[in-house]
Amino acid sequence: MHALTRLAPEVRQYLLVTGNYWAFTLTDGALRMLVVLHFHSLGYSPLQIALLFLFYEIFGVITNLVGGYLGARLGLNRTMNIGLGLQVLALLMLTVPVAWLTIPWVMGAQALSGIAKDLNKMSAKSSIKLLVPDNQQGRLYKWVAILTGSKNALKGVGFFLGGALLALMGFKGAVLTMAAVLALIWLSSLLLLKKDLGKAKAKPKFRDILSKSRAINILSAARLFLFGARDVWFVVALPVYLSTVSGWDFWQVGGFLAAWVIGYGMVQSFAPAITGKRRGQVPDGRAAFVWALLLAGLPAAIALGLNAGLSAHAVLLGGLMLFGALFAVNSSLHSYLIVSYAKEDGVSLDVGFYYMSNAMGRLIGTLLSGWLYQAYGLGACLWISTAFVLLAALISIALPRHAEAR
After folding, report:
1. Rounded to an integer, what distance in angstroms lies between the CA atom of residue 255 and that of residue 153?
2. What are the pLDDT digits (tens) for 349-404?
3. How far apart are CA 245 and CA 310, in angstroms?
4. pTM of the full predicted structure?
5. DSSP string, 131-168
6. Helices (H), 45-136
7. Distance of CA 300 to the CA centre of its chain
8. Which of 3, 226, 287, 316 is deepest in the core (most CB within 10 A)?
9. Residue 372: CB partners within 8 Å, gap ≥ 6?
10. What is the Cα gyration radius of the chain?
11. Which of the 8 DSSP states describes residue 188?
12. DSSP structural state of residue 194
């Protein structure tokens, strides 16, 4: 604690925001894996499992849209702490007797978790804009990449944690343990996080939740299809495929998906170096188009490999690793561009609108993942993923260069 107080104020707040985000992410990743594996083991179909996340994604869309407004009005410290508190409540809702764990009840808990997740993420991403001077775009890109990459690496740890806790403690014990730990983090955040961080000087009107920036609107549309392309095969189809077709147990599914997301997060953290920051280049809209185009062919290649009768494990797992690396660079680029494009006063309004599109993409991808897999199999999910990435690339053509986005 003494070492923390000796740091520069902006660095200290960055570490506190990042620590909050890390703690939340661990429980979020673990909870998702717990729900998928536990309810699959109870006999739920892939579509029913996807429906369990319906409110999670729907309320994520609403929360990002309204949460940006609340962050500008109330301060990002408050929206972040509200998110942590709601996640504790969502976890406690799942500790009820098994007979109570009906689909509507679990969907309600997931709704709270979706609100909590996107309040927390919007607050964390918006805060960085306020902690880095506007003329230090390289530093901004680095800090956004570290936050985003480390978050996703820890989400991968959360996947493994969810599978491990389910095997060791059962569903109720795992959820109760996570609720207790996150409650302690929440209390610490209430005491330490800077008051009024991100509170707009001019009180925004509710109509301001819709972005008036052309660059942000275009980037938001590209983000929708980019994340829909990932979740259409990753959220439900892939874990169910590994569990049923490949015969993997909870440890293997959770462990593999954990390793994938950890590697994905590590690539995100190094994205500034990969995209040219060491050569003094800060990416713009053209970079978003090029990297999306590079990603587009991978899901199609995996689908073709599976149809050709090649080793399913080699094609699927190898293709998934390549997809994760390229997707990580795309995601990190987008995360930097939105923070860079956003206005400093009331930054959460722009960031919230953008992550609303992110949540909409996840919602569409999640529903399609369950339905397409159940009706047509994994190959159909992969072809839709290809189409979505191509749409993201085409939309990105209209993005401005970074210097023109002001």
Report:
1. 13
2. 777 788 888 888 988 998 898 889 989 999 999 999 999 999 999 999 999 865 54
3. 15
4. 0.74
5. HS-TT-HHHHHHHHHHHHHHHHHHHHHHHHHHHHHHHH
6. 46-52, 54-74, 76-93, 103-131
7. 23
8. 226
9. 232, 237, 380, 381, 384
10. 20
11. H
12. P
